Amino acid sequence: MAISDSFSHGKDANARSGGRNLPAGALKAQDIRRQVDEWKDPYLRDEERPKRPALCEECGAVYANHRWYQAEDAPMPAREQAQLPRVICPADRRMRDRLPGGVLTVSGAFFDSHRQTIEELIHNEEQRARKTNPMERIMDRSDGNGALTIQTTNPKLAQRIGHALEKAYHGDIVYKWSEDNRMARINWKRD
Ligand SMILES: [Zn+2]
Questions:
Q1: Å from CA of 61 to ligand 1 middle
Q2: Residue 15 backbone phi and psi in degrees, to 5
Q3: What is the Å distance from ligand 1's center to 171 Cα?
Q4: Full-prediction pTM beyond 0.70?
Q5: What is the distance in A from the centroid of ligand 1 to the CA of 57?
Q6: How far, in Å, is the centroid of ligand 1 from the Cα of 23?
Q7: How far is the CA of 8 from the centre of ligand 1 (A)?
Q8: CA angle at residue 52 from 50 to 55, to 5 degrees?
Q9: pLDDT tens by residue, the chain, 191 residues
Q10: Count of CB atoms situated within 10 Å of the CB of 22
């Protein structure tokens, strides 16, 4: 899928914000942060949620108390988890459908020369996010032409990693939404 072809900004941002006059061009960081906070995952709609506690047969995440837990954090012992009805969790459905919620591109000369520490930061951010919400995870990555492209199951994780890179290493960051408002695209670059 040509993800990069489906992105635009400016005009669509105005339409999505109910006609308020956002400047043309990429959304400002605050704008997308607010929108990400309000963003509702179509894979987590009420009708998609399990009606009672359940276990993801792909990743072992447990659904209980209206949220998802990693197995070791679930509010019931493993032997009870094993009895739960099996479902496919929203993150695994996205992975099956190959439909990311966020795409983060990391590039620039600084990235080339600090690849290992940057990869560690990305990994650590994913692990922390996943602990809080097992539905936030990296679903794919590709490396080429001096850039690392990471697909995440939701826009919050792509945003979180981009923000962590900016905080740790400065550089330039650009946030955009896809036309259908379902996918955030975040580009971080430092030369
Ligand atoms: Zn799962």
A1: 5
A2: -60, -40
A3: 34
A4: yes
A5: 6
A6: 39
A7: 31
A8: 70
A9: 444 444 444 334 434 444 344 444 566 666 767 677 666 666 666 556 788 899 999 999 999 999 999 999 999 999 999 999 999 999 999 999 999 999 999 999 999 899 999 999 999 999 999 988 999 999 999 998 889 999 999 888 999 999 999 999 999 999 988 777 778 999 999 99
A10: 18
